[in-house]
Amino acid sequence: MKRALLALLCPLMLPACSAELAVDTPPQEVTIPVTSVARAIHVEVAVDMPEETQNLDVNVKEISADLTVINPSKAFTLRSTARLSLTGTATPDAPKFYSDSNLPAYYHTAEVLLPQMDFAPVSSTPVHADSPTLRNAIGKERIWIIVSNTVTDAGLGNPLELPLELRLEDIILHATVSKPFEGLEGMLGPSGL
Length: 193
Description:
The strands form 2 sheets. Strands 1, 2, 4, 8 and 10 form a 5-stranded antiparallel β-sheet that branches. The longest helix has 12 residues, at 2-13. The chain is mainly beta. It is built from 3 helices and 10 strands; from the N terminus they run αββββββββαββα. The protein is globular.
């Protein structure tokens, strides 16, 4: 009787046969050049995902990202927004630049990762992002971030200060993943008890 009861319960227990693990990727950084005043220019940069996140056969339960946006300029306020895309043409060594009139076809399907914000001169701003697209980034070799940026205000300082850039530093993905234990059906099934 006990054996028959276990055999009936096994199919219900199988979904619970998985390991759940919280992982953080090593910190990464990306530098985004600012090439426009008053009118936004879009810069697509490629970010290679850490090997730890590639080719994983796991179920992603939760994922988020933390990063710090740094405006090193002593004179300029920079306005920026960022989108996350799983498609792109930039490489880590060669960013792609776009204007509003020649946006790539995938721009409007890229998910907003960072809503429009102003970054004051010499500022360091922590940002937390929850994005459904981040879930699909696990297992990919590369993702693309499309940053729209412009100078919005000039304060005291050297107006010829170049290059202007935003730095995205300490980019860390936090993920909770589960790995099912496959093959346990045979061990837990009626003939395996």
